[in-house]
Amino acid sequence: MSKQQEKTRLVQAVHSAVNHYDKSKRKTVSQACEDLGLARSNYNRWRYSVQKNLSETGAAIVPPPKSRAPKKNGKALPADVRQRIWDMAQSGLYANPSQIGKALREEGASVSDNTVRNNLERAGLYGYRTVIGSDGKPTKKKVLLL
């Protein structure tokens, strides 16, 4: 049984105890919550969620809690800057992320070379490639992958 189903079951059990058909067996909300080992504040919160969900969707369940985490990373690069980085890398005019970062800063974008490098790596445009060194031996080198 999921947490939402368990919460809904507890709300229904308290409701049933409070609204028992036999008046002599009815309990107060506090007594019913105490019998079930449920804090009254939780019952009230869950009951409100059930009522709200019932009026919105027609389902009498406690919906999962909404995340309080931020919806967007405040430090994330805007999509247009990210696209500009990719376009500059694919143009063939720049040899490394630091040249792209310098060009972007001249255009007025506030980005570091590491941010450019990380975005290029995530996009698969920057990584290791085997190249032939000046001594004729193959070596791995980080380059723009075009």
Report on the structure:
The protein is mostly helical and 146 residues long. The chain has helices spanning 3-18, 29-36, 40-57, 79-91, 97-107, 113-122, and strands spanning 126-132, 138-144. A two-stranded antiparallel ribbon has the order 1-2. Helix 1 (3-18) packs across helix 2 and helix 1 (3-18) packs across helix 3. It is rod-shaped, with a radius of gyration of 30 Å. Residues 57-78 are annotated as: Disordered.
Task: Provide the β-strand percentage band.
Answer: 5-15%
Q: Into which percent range does the helicity of residues fall?
A: 40-55%
Terminal CA distance: 52 Å
Q: Which architecture of the largest domain per CATH?
A: Orthogonal Bundle
Low-confidence residue ranges: none
- List the domain count as a whole number: 2
User: Which topology of the largest domain does CATH recognise?
Assistant: Arc Repressor Mutant, subunit A
Question: How does the SSE layout of this entry go?
Answer:
Elements: H1 3-18, H2 29-36, H3 40-57, H4 79-91, H5 97-107, H6 113-122, E1 126-132, E2 138-144
Antiparallel strand pairs: 1-2
In short:
The protein has helices at residues 3-18, 29-36, 40-57, 79-91, 97-107, 113-122, and strands spanning 126-132, 138-144.
What tags apply to this protein structure?
single chain; 146 residues; Arc Repressor Mutant, subunit A; 2 domains; two-stranded antiparallel sheet; 6 helices; rod-shaped
